[in-house]
Specification:
- By secondary structure, this protein is of the alpha/beta class.
- It has one domain: P-loop containing nucleotide triphosphate hydrolases (Rossmann fold, 3-Layer(aba) Sandwich), CATH 3.40.50.300.
- The protein is built from twelve helices and ten strands.
- The strands form two sheets. Strands 6-7-8-3-9-10 form a six-stranded mixed sheet, with helices on both faces. Strands 2-1-4-5 form a four-stranded antiparallel sheet, with helices on one face.
- Helix 5 packs parallel to helix 8 (about 180-190) and helix 9 runs parallel beside helix 10.
- It starts with a helix and ends with a helix.
- The structure holds adenosine-5'-triphosphate (ATP) and magnesium ion.
- Adenosine-5'-triphosphate binds near residues 73 and 74.
């Protein structure tokens, strides 16, 4: 039986078609060294302007922290980048060529933008390695070309990611038995299996012990460089421990941008956020 016959025996025709001709997005064009452009973005919810003429540029390989008071629009901004929320106006580009506003959530994920929500969503009943394997299977391109050689590569990739997230000694453990911090790292590992070029992480330090926070700061710092990382976080010690550049959002716009020292000494930032 050929591979195609085997697939036919358990799949519909359109599903086979999807597997064989996956939607491979255009290559990421980083000609100007900028991986994400948000220009003049506006979003209203029932007349309330959650995002107000937002402009944000993230460089290739950058680790950017986004801070700002509750309701500033930080999560909504991530919703726009990932296609969960459609802006009323403005533009959003991934590299030079990929127009995020013309894509849906799965297309944006496939193009190379990974997002980690605040609550870890690992498969609790499965071993740590199985979680990583399942995350990889989400990539149709892997399924489409599944063969022995790639299986070796896949195993190497799982080992590599286990090392990156520091769970190499927990690979056989059930994900449900991990600490809160370890689950967060596993979920970051699951995102890494898809090789995102841009990773969005919303409040990673919440609920973590100091030790876990230090380890998370190291992890996120190590991920930048080969990819870009945007971190939304309220814990200022954590932000200070990882940040290069910090953007302060307030009422849906950029209030200030610069080093942690610069924004911490900015009078407007102190008034609306840090002075709380
Ligand atoms: N789907 C929605 N419908 C209506 N209002 C919304 C929706 N999503 C967000 N908002 C409102 O938009 C504003 C921005 O919310 P957002 O969640 O982006 O803030 P945030 O900066 O992430 O805040 P926090 O620090 O508390 O997480 C808030 O006033 C929120 O109530
Ligand atoms: Mg939020």
């Amino acid at each position: 039986m050929t591979v195609l016959e085997a697939m036919r025996s358990y799949m519909r025709r359109d599903q086979i078609f999807e597997f064989l001709i996956p939607d491979i997005p255009p290559d990421l064009d980083l000609t100007h060294g900028v991986i994400l452009y948000l220009d003049g973005i506006n979003v209203s919810f029932d007349g309330f302007k959650a995002i107000n003429d937002l402009n944000l540029y993230i460089e290739d390989g950058e680790l950017r922290c986004i801070i700002g008071p509750n309701g500033a629009g930080k999560t909504t901004m991530m919703d726009i980048i990932t296609g969960k929320t459609r802006p009323d106006s403005g533009s959003a580009w991934f590299g030079q060529q990929i127009n995020l506003l013309e894509m849906d959530e799965p297309e944006i994920a496939a193009a190379g933008i990974g997002r980690k929500f605040q609550k870890p969503t690992v498969f609790e009943q499965h071993a740590v390695t199985d979680n990583l394997e399942l995350a990889m299977a989400g990539d149709k391109r892997v399924w489409a070309t599944l063969n022995a050689r790639l299986n070796g590569e896949q195993r190497d990739r799982i080992e590599e990611v286990l090392q990156i997230i520091g769970l190499e000694n927990h690979s056989k453990n059930q994900a449900g038995s991990l600490s809160h911090g370890q689950k967060q790292w596993l979920e970051i590992g699951m995102l890494l299996m898809q090789n995102p070029k841009l990773l969005l992480v919303d409040e990673p330090a919440a609920g973590m012990t100091h030790q876990e926070m230090d380890r998370t700061a190291e992890l996120l710092t190590s991920l930048a460089g080969t990819r870009s990382v945007i971190v939304v976080e309220h814990d200022m010690d954590f932000v200070r421990s990882i940040a290069g550049k910090v953007t302060v959002l307030h009422q849906g716009s950029v209030l200030a941008e610069g080093s942690m020292d610069e924004v911490q000494n900015d009078q407007r930032v102190i008034e609306v956020y840090l002075g709380e």
